[in-house]
Amino acid sequence: MPKGKTLYSIARSRTKQPKALPPLAAAPTEAAPKPVYDDVDVAIVMESTYPYLKGGVSAVVHDIVTHNPDLSYGIIHITWDSDAPLTDLYGMPSNVRWVRTVFLSMEEHREDFLAVSVKDLGMTPLQREELSHRLFDALYALSEHGDVDGLWELIDEGLNERTRRYPLWALLGSREFMQTLQDRMPQLNLSLANSFWTLRNFFSLAFAVLGETMPRASVYHAHTTGYASLLGAAAARDHDTSFLLTEHNLYVRDTVNTLLDRNMALSITADDYRTFDVTAEQRAWMAWWTEMGRFCYPSARLITYLYPSAITEAARLGTDIDKSVVVPNGMVIEEFDEKYRARQHALATMEQEGADYVWHLVYIARVVPIKGLLDLLSSMDILRDRGYPNLHLDVLGPTEHVPEYFEACLAKIDALGLHDHVTIHGTVHVREMLDQFDLLVLPSYNEGQPIVILEAMAAGIPTVGSDVGGVAQQIADDLITTDGRTIGPCGETVTPGDVQQMADGIQAVIGNLDSYAAYAANARKRVQELFQMHEVMSSYNQIYRALGDLPIVGDMVQFPEDELAPAEL
Questions:
Q1: Ramachandran category for residue 4: left, alpha or beta (phi over 0 → left; psi -120 to 50 → alpha)
Q2: Tens digit of each residue's pLDDT (9 = 90 or more) over 143-189
Q3: pTM, 2 dp
Q4: Thinking of the domain 333-530, which architecture would CATH place it in?
């Protein structure tokens, strides 16, 4: 997927909408032989991430497969089309048996999706009318009552490669369907042509995800709702195995906010698509994303979240709290021992140099609007005006994802005269440089449970970050250890976009050396006690074995049926 794009924006930009309604039929092409895939213990389902794109979620998945070598894996990678990045950036370990790519673009499915016509349904006009009403009955059953059975029946009959009796997507080209659409969904408020093209997008996306049989796995582990969740739920149902969902972030919320160009920190509920003041097409896409999530949640035997408040917010989107647990991200803390020792030496230097010490702040993220670098530059200017001239900000991360935003950041550095206070490095090996920095600053508008904060914590570096996602749980909330001890904060949280608060937060951490030393010590302790990689990976291993009915290894505890023990903080 091109950087800085969403699958929604790509779909819209590449979908042309002629005035006339064209026939669905196209000349078929000869199909290539299908590859054979081994059965695996776990099939991890990703959307535009691992193993072809780097990022926090990709890093977590790589940790899962490398830290659980006793399990076999397959990777199902969902992306837009064959022009998307398809180079393995991680080097698949030997327990990953295969990587299977699924393309969403209808152009990648011409011989199957575009080659059918209404006659391929093999139905009379009356039967096509009855089928159209069944489809809308199923959609209303989902949206009004959360009933998923009707849609699953239609998927089995008309989409599932192993069981389909007719091509359901061909119904779109029938007069009966378009008439039923006008009768049953007048609230769409779209012209006939726009209704056709919008629904054609939905039909093609559903076909791309559901139209081919996936390799068999004992557990399908989707790392997001949306298409990954839909594929994982369908594959588990098709093979009579288990579906596990992990929401690293709230995909429905983030996708809808992107669609509407809203502040990414704003919440979304399952009813918002009915009430928001948006265009008819936006309302249709909001409903698509929201109801897809509500359709998939019931299929998951377990849903894991990175931090407790995510469960509460997800409940407003239709998740089931009773089968939701917290499994945080983790660190191999020993990998940061050398960096931690260096930071302890830095504390002595701070004390010796006093007011002459130059504080090194670091921003580690892509230079894109959602990460808030422009705001941080304003905060740097405020701190300088307050009499903090001995500050330097290092910016680590890709700058090419949204070129116009990067140019705006450069222009702001120039306008504020911050050249001597800001260094932009671009993409670097962050861990190698980590001991050079005194404070991580994360002014994001949207996060889950950032890996970069855990890395800083493991090195004993405090953080000032926006109060989004699980950031407060990582750095600001008191945490209770398993033996009842309380570990205090290792940083400050601020309101996203509030540049004055960000300046206040930075000042609160670096303004008192005793407080700074306490924050630094707590950072390391929090990882030692509650974010250890081996404990997180043990939780995943036990979950996989319980859900997939896989043999128990060693002394691992098998969770009772329907009582999978939550790994809570």
A1: left
A2: 999 999 999 999 999 999 999 999 999 999 999 999 999 999 887 78
A3: 0.88
A4: 3-Layer(aba) Sandwich (3.40)
